[in-house]
Write a structure and sequence with these properties.
With about 220 residues, this protein is mostly helical. The protein has helices spanning about 35-50, 55-65, 80-85, 90-105, 120, 130-140, 150-160, 170-200, 205-220; strands spanning about 15-20, 20-25. It is built from 9 helices and 2 strands, in the order ββααααααααα. A hairpin with a 2-residue loop joins strand 1 and strand 2 (about 20-25). The chain is globular, with a radius of gyration of 20 Å.
């Protein structure tokens, strides 16, 4: 189905890894979902069907579908699922997911208003996720009459960026480097997994591993 609930023909991604080279061949979706997974997928898609205005719930639903590979019976990759099921690009889907991940870090005690759209969070995606609660608190505190200006957003991004005028102290810098090493380690782990799957002829699993690499990289660029 598309975003309007109309059923569309399922298609598969043609990209398959062969040896060290990419080649184009037709691939079909794989592996059936369990009964529990079907229920989970229906729940997530019902949330998405309500509309992309509720970006936090949609982002969390897309995260579940991606991480659990609930799309796998009709789609080879998460990207093709987003395009064919909802008519959205994978880059937009990932922005919604990343925005939702940051909003999830905000306190739930009602002490701070939360973003109402992915667009409000987008400028801060270039910062580390754990920085978002502090920068959002500053945004709310320093906004005049509840109005958020582009200049204030730009100022805060500069302040909380490692390249900004308020550079972190040595302790925070060391922690940042440690996190960066962890991210590289995660990428290499998935690269090893993809290579192993390719050597065993497990193309679908290799594609899934490459998707996770793309997600890790896009999360921090």
């Amino acid at each position: 189905m598309n975003a309007n609930g109309q059923k569309s023909a399922a298609k598969s991604d043609p990209i398959v890894i062969s040896g060290r080279n990419w080649r184009l061949v037709k691939r079909e979706p794989s592996s059936e979902l369990t009964e529990a997974e079907v229920t989970q997928l229906e729940h997530c898609e019902a949330i998405i069907q309500k509309g992309f205005d509720t970006f936090f719930e949609v982002g969390m639903a897309l995260t579940t579908i991606r991480d659990e590979r609930l799309y796998r019976t009709e789609h080879v990759t998460f990207d093709s699922y987003c395009r064919q099921r909802w008519g959205i690009g994978s880059s937009y889907a990932r922005r919604v997911i990343r925005a939702a991940e940051r909003v999830k870090l905000l306190p739930n005690d009602g002490t701070i208003p939360k973003p109402t759209s992915e667009f409000q969070v987008r400028p801060f995606l270039q910062l580390d996720p754990e920085v978002f609660p502090k920068v959002w608190q500053q945004l709310v505190t320093r906004s005049r009459g509840g109005k958020i200006s582009a200049s204030l957003v730009k100022e805060l991004v500069a302040e909380f960026s490692s390249n900004g005028p308020n550079f972190e102290d040595a302790k925070d810098t060391a922690a940042r480097r440690k996190r960066s090493c962890g991210r590289f380690g995660e990428v290499f782990t998935w690269l090893f997994e993809a290579r192993k799957r390719m050597q065993n002829g497990e193309t679908d699993q290799a594609l899934a591993a490459l998707e996770r690499i793309e997600e890790v990289i896009s999360r921090y660029l």
